Amino acid sequence: MAVDEDWRPVRGSEETLEVAAVCFAWNAVPSIQLSQMCGAEHRYVAERGGWVPVVSAEMETTVPGVLSAGDGAGLGGAAMAALEGRIAGIAAAARLGALRPERRGRSSGCINRRWPRSENPVTASGASSRRGRDWPS
Asked: Nearest 5°: CA angle at 64, between 27 and 133?
């Protein structure tokens, strides 16, 4: 969509694009729209900015095959987003057969040492669940 000199949308300039993925970066609140539309379970985690998708150690949501990282998994800053993105990327590459299983463990091991699961406010116990059940550890 085009905008005019006052940054207002120009009517009739809309385009429809076919895409394989959509990414959001919002900053004020977690960008959970896509995980909500996919039907993923969410929990309220104040430390991550509010409602966030429940994720596994590989950043997979409660919907098999749907991974969420960065602002899509909760606020935490650029460093956390980069680490979560790396975890999700390693998991996705391994599932697609683009990463040998022996490389997968070495690639993610350094991340797990930097950010133990017990310190992750989304995967650690104690967060309230929107559906009233805990995601398995």
From this structure: 75
Q: Is residue 6, in this structure, part of any structural domain at all?
A: no
- Name the token pair of 101: 């299983």
- The answer to whether 121 and 48 are in contact (CB under 8 A) is yes
Number of domains the chain is built from: 1
Please give the angle made by the CA atoms of 97, 21 and 9, to the nearest 5 degrees: 165
Angle at 98 between CA 59 and CA 41, to 5 degrees: 20
Cβ atoms of 87 and 76 closer than 8 Å? no
* Residue pLDDT tens, the chain, 137 long: 888 988 888 999 998 888 887 776 656 789 899 999 999 999 999 999 999 999 999 999 999 999 999 989 999 988 999 999 999 999 998 888 888 766 655 555 544 444 444 455 555 444 444 333 333 33
Q: What is the pTM of this model?
A: 0.59
Which domain, by its residues, includes 72?
Answer: 33-129
Residue 13 lies in a domain: no
Tokens matching residue 76:
């935490």
